[in-house]
Task: structure prediction
Amino acid sequence: MKGTGIGSFGFVLINGEAIQVNTKLQFNKDIFLWQFSACIGGCYDMKQTIQTVSGCPSTEAEWNVRAALKNCAAMCSDFSYHCLITKEMNAMIEVCAEPKYIQGYCTYFDTADDRIKGLYAADCSKYQNPCSTRYHSTKAFLYQDCYDLVRAYVTVHPSSTSSTPVNTNTLTNSTGNSSNNTSEEKSITTIVIAIVVVLVVITVIGVIIFIRLGKCSLLKRDAEAGNFLDIKTTEGGDLKETEILLDGNASKVEDEAPDLTAEIRRLTEEYEAKLAEVNKEIEILKSQTEKDMDDKEKLMRQVLEKNKECKTLNNRLQEAKGNIRVLCRIRKSESTNCLSATKTTVIIDRNTDPPKKFPFERVFDANSTQEVVYEEISELIRSFLDGYNLCIFAYGQTGSGKTYTMEGPQGKNAEMKHQGIIPRAMKQVFRSVEDFEVCGWTYQFRASYFELYNEAIQDLAKGSNDEGKNLTKGATENNRTSKPIITEKEVKTTEEVMKFYEESSKNRTSAKTARNERSSRSHAIFRLKMNGKVENIEGSQDTCSGTMTLVDLAGSERLDDSANISTNTETKKINLSLLELTKVLRSLRRKEKPVYRNSKLTHLLQDSLGGNSKTLMIVNVSPSEDCLKETERTLEFGREVSKVVLENVARKNK
Ligand SMILES: Nc1ncnc2c1ncn2[C@@H]1O[C@H](COP(=O)(O)OP(=O)(O)OP(=O)(O)O)[C@@H](O)[C@H]1O
Result:
């Protein structure tokens, strides 16, 4: 008899029948090595099918041999009531998936024929495979193409290894092999017991180390809590003073700016020095080998402590800067420039009128690069990972550079240096996560992207079909808040999140073409939710969660008398939502309860405004002469918002 392979799932048919291979058949090494490689190859071919069945990851890189084989097993077990797949089969696949065992696959084949055993043993020693003494019984093989054949075969020829009785006519050697099978099962049991014992020993050692580590960190945490309370008590006065300062009107803030600036500079320097220390130690930690376990643990504790200090400093710094911050960016322009700017003030100087000054925390002139703008907000992005909700808006009239600031140019030819806040923030988040993971944190991220057009919510992740993605009347999270369910995609890397963002953006872009520059008339809201945890002994966990919301607002221009009716409706709705946004911010400033429900925009951003949230508004203006009227309005709006100070509330970090 000779073996016959059928491609897609790579298992062996013998003379057109699916037959147990531990019977006395004339197999040779080549059949099995071939069979094994066909199995791997088959898995690749079957990627789509396996994906559908077991929800595998889709990137090529994730399709290593281990994953492919595991999913073979997963798929096989789906069909297990039809065929003879057993636990041993899965176990074999698990073991064989280890790259070091691949060459010695033949050792997992069991045969009653001692001559064949000898042949495989010789092969194994040739490959220097450490497990040449182990034998597995390969019970049955199944593949998609011969699924019906196997089912028919199993029905007619049930096996002793399945729940159905053995048909001795076909499997003539099954009875003869029963003693072999029993001894084989015993040896498997022995191996399993040995593995369990080793695992128990490892677990006990792990628990002891973990308890010791836990005690140390608890002591440190107590000490730190004491320090923190001291700091809070002694510096409570300072913070209150800062709050009063920020609560004042714009001119008062200007008068007192030097004190606040000095405090911010001091905190910034302190924070940057601490951050540099932490980063250096994380690098050392990453380069430690397993041999230096003691040193590694010591260093890890150090990094965790410094990281906490770093977080505290960063949060004090952000609080000193204010929980609602307003920056201004002047767009690059070839035409006449009617604005001048210092680092903190925009000046409109018309010869006819006295100069008008608009102070901001920071003004980026027309020559400021994307990198310079991002540098200013990167510390704020870090506080998202510390467990704060974060909301960044780009506000301004159409064409003032909001989209450029938030995302930058997209597409293959887009240069890195032009990347906007969204791609840069995603890179920073996932790079920082790698560092925190070294210290034991694990994170889960979920991204969503939607737009608000004419007070209707469009889920951009759902494709460009307007019916499908309009969620205004669709399912809601719960009846009370009636917030729509928006697609949230789990993302693990910068590449994944940017792929999601870019693909969803296309739906926005196609709508833009079809609907006459609609994108400038809709608010685009990109959201990243984070849940992080550090496992501790005794079942306790440090957790941390936050939401980052990045908003490219619709053009803020006022109603033009010459505009047509549909434009009027759009503009009225945009103005209404922007007006409601200002009202909410104003209420927060006055410590009154904001009304979020008056517009979809504020309703959807409710969780990101107020409470422990940090809000940053980038006011974008065009320096062109013909935009002057709108520019002035925009600057006035920015000035109004910058007066808002949110309550300082303890962060969500538990
Ligand atoms: N700082 C800048 N440097 C270079 N180009 C810029 C800058 N700001 C904006 N631009 C360019 O100006 C044009 C308009 O900018 P953008 O699309 O970002 O405006 P917008 O405010 O988002 O407009 P809309 O409301 O219509 O979406 C774009 O071609 C953009 O690339």
Q: What stands out?
A: The chain has a mean pLDDT of 63. Residues 331-332, 396, 398-404, 409, 519-520, 555, 620 surround adenosine-5'-triphosphate (CB under 6 Å). The chain has three domains: 3-176, 187-321, 322-641.
